[in-house]
Amino acid sequence: MRILLFTGKGGVGKTTVAAATATLAAKRSLKTLVVSTDTAHSLADALAVRPSEEPVEAAPGLYLQQVDTQRSLERHWGELQEYARNVFSELGLDEITSEEITVLPGAEEVIALLELREQARTGRWDVIVVDCAPTAETLRLLALPEALDWHVNRLLPIGRRVLKAVSPVIRHVAKISVPEGEVISAGERLHRGLLEIRELLTGDNASVRLVLTPEAVVVAEARRTLTSLSLYGYRVDAVIANRVFPAEGADEWRRAWVEAQVRHLTEVHESFAPLPVLTVPYLAAEPVGPAALAEVAEELYGTADPFARPSVEPPMRITADELSLALPLADRDDVDLARKGDELIVTAAPYRRVIALPSSLARRTISSAALRDGRLRVRFEAGGAK
Ligand SMILES: Nc1ncnc2c1ncn2[C@@H]1O[C@H](COP(=O)(O)OP(=O)(O)OP(=O)(O)O)[C@@H](O)[C@H]1O
Ligand SMILES: [Mg+2]
Questions:
Q1: How large is the C-alpha radius of gyration of the chain?
Q2: What is the pLDDT of residues 2-41, one digit of tens each?
Q3: How far is the CA of 46 from the centre of ligand 1 (A)?
Q4: Protein residues placing their CB within 5 Å of the ion ligand 2
Q5: How many whole angstroms separate alpha carbon 32 and alpha carbon 275?
Q6: Which atom of ligand 1 is nearest to the CA of 280?
Q7: Is 12 in the pocket of ligand 1 (CB under 6 A)?
Q8: Ligand 1 atom nearest to CA at 42
Q9: Does ligand 1 lie within 6 Å of residue 213's CB atom?
Q10: Mean pLDDT rounded to a whole number for the chain
Q11: Which of 22, 116, 155, 200 could lock onto 129 through a cystine, CB 3.0 to 4.6 A?
């Protein structure tokens, strides 16, 4: 099963390109599901179907799923809500309702991803295409499983220890919120679910495609997105330049745009090399419906196989005495490294990742660290304790 994620700045054409790619997959007889983490119904609009919570067939072999965040929340987070409610009331805050929980940053996208995992598990799909939220949210969402992993790892064992040591009476008097056994297991279930999603999305069969338009502001943001996706361990396997003005027969107004776009496209090629840069022309009308989307996909991929396993390496590499992480386009001044026990904290401002060191490196002293050719290399001293 192949997973393709599409992200980029707001309005650049993520939904269109995701829907076009999914349409092409179905045309090539691959069982295809396209999912949106977006609460707007743009994906259904692009495919010209009614949004549906269960996968609905939009064209032969092409299914669309629009996650109903609220319903899904009730299914997945019931027990956690209960826990959150108790904590909030102990803190003297108003009782939190399930509607309010969805307002937590990233919660909606996380819920959409939990649904994605369920679909992936069915074994029903050859290709799953994900239309992600715009850049900033997507990054937070993609980082979330790992960030949560970090917190949950710390919190859960404490919860369990306290649970054993503290009797209900003391708990009442001390007014500390101790997760009940059942709730801990709900927390653990969620945690496991998130880990599975991360494995799925950073695994050998998943890759991210960065959508942009050839404009200065958009390109600048796409460059930062590439760095941060790599920081978090996601493979980016292509850049898609959408809305490229055709040069032929241009009047003066359009000629200015064509010239500016050519300049930005040159920069895109240089910046993102060796990634392929695929282009889609600015069409005369909005590409809506399977036929128009199939044409977009033709323009985009030509005869290439966009569903082959990604050939790009994972960003992180670990050898006997080195951990290295690709940070393409990262500015030296923005990169920082810190060590905290068995963890390495890598910052590529404004983003940060906590990496649990493998046991082979965890007890060894760092001998050097350098950022060279877009790769952070951390070397460890041979053998011995720290
Ligand atoms: N190559 C193109 N030519 C003409 N119109 C396009 C092209 N690509 C996208 N559009 C149109 O531009 C609009 C925005 O595209 P789309 O919804 O795919 O962007 P998006 O990145 O998903 O936006 P959002 O960030 O809001 O989710 C849509 O009306 C779409 O039909
Ligand atoms: Mg969209």
A1: 23
A2: 999 999 999 999 999 999 999 999 999 999 999 987 767 7
A3: 9
A4: 14-15, 42
A5: 25
A6: 1
A7: yes
A8: 17
A9: no
A10: 83
A11: 22
How far apart, in whole angstroms, are the C-alpha atoms of residue 213 and residue 282? 10
Residue 84 has a pLDDT of: 55
C-alpha to C-alpha distance for 109 and 102, rounded to whole angstroms: 10
**Alpha-carbon distance 386 to 357, whole Å?**
13
In this structure, are strands 322-326 and 366-372 parallel, antiparallel, or unpaired? Answer: unpaired
Ligand 1 close to Cβ of residue 134 (< 6 A): yes
Give me the sheet containing 351-356, strands edge to edge.
Answer: 335-340, 343-348, 351-356
Instruction: Quote the pLDDT of residue 285.
Output: 96
Tokens found for residue 150: 């970090």
Mutational pocket test of ligand 1: of 35, 243, 286, the residue with most ligand atoms within 8 Å of the beta carbon? 286
Highest averaged pLDDT of the listed ranges 21-25, 50-54, 145-149: 21-25
Nearest CA to ligand 1 atom 26: 11
Q: Is residue 160 packed enough to be buried (19+ CB in 10 Å), middle (13-18) or exposed (0-12)?
A: middle
Tokens of 277: 């840069």
